[in-house]
Amino acid sequence: xxxxxxxxxxxxxxxxxxxxxxxxxxxxxxxxxxxxxxxxxxxxxxxxxxxxxxxxxxxxxxxxxxxxxxxxxxxxxxxxxxxxxxxxxxxxxxxxxxxxxxxxxxxxxxxxxxxxxxxxxxxxxxxxxxxxxxxxxxxxxxxxxxxxxxxxxxxxxxxxxxxxxxxxxxxxxxxxxxxxxxxxxxxx
Length: 188
Description:
Blueprint: H1 3-6, H2 26-31, H3 41-57, E1 63-75, E2 85-95, E3 103-111, E4 117-130, E5 133-142, E6 149-158, E7 162-169, E8 178-186
Antiparallel strand pairs: 1-2, 1-8, 2-3, 3-4, 4-5, 5-6, 6-7, 7-8
């Protein structure tokens, strides 16, 4: 099945970034590129180390640290066999003080809905608050997706020791919408 038939966007004509073998992707077979190549790996590696430094060297006085356990997703378009159990671990650091509202810096690994390994690094901005709920957007650089740049609406609910991240994306041309969840466990 071609990327167009699946509803995926590919980086170029004839390229199937989710092919299981070189034979499944004619462009990769011709160029002898590893299967699953999207051209974004170098970009992610170039930004991962500086992003990690920002997260780890941020001042702890205005921060809270969280272990993030990735877990579940549900896709609205069932035309392909999505992986809806997405195991993974990550780290988040909250910054409550700042001129533009609360930020959370995030990084981690999960097995994504395409059944590919995914490393991610990014940030979540949640300026709207209603009790324990915070609403905003999550911006990420992530491997294992047709596009390495992801911008997602986000809702976070947190207590003192535990929280949950909810991501929801509507159906878009070429992409299935989904709802995803991660559990947050305080490390402080």
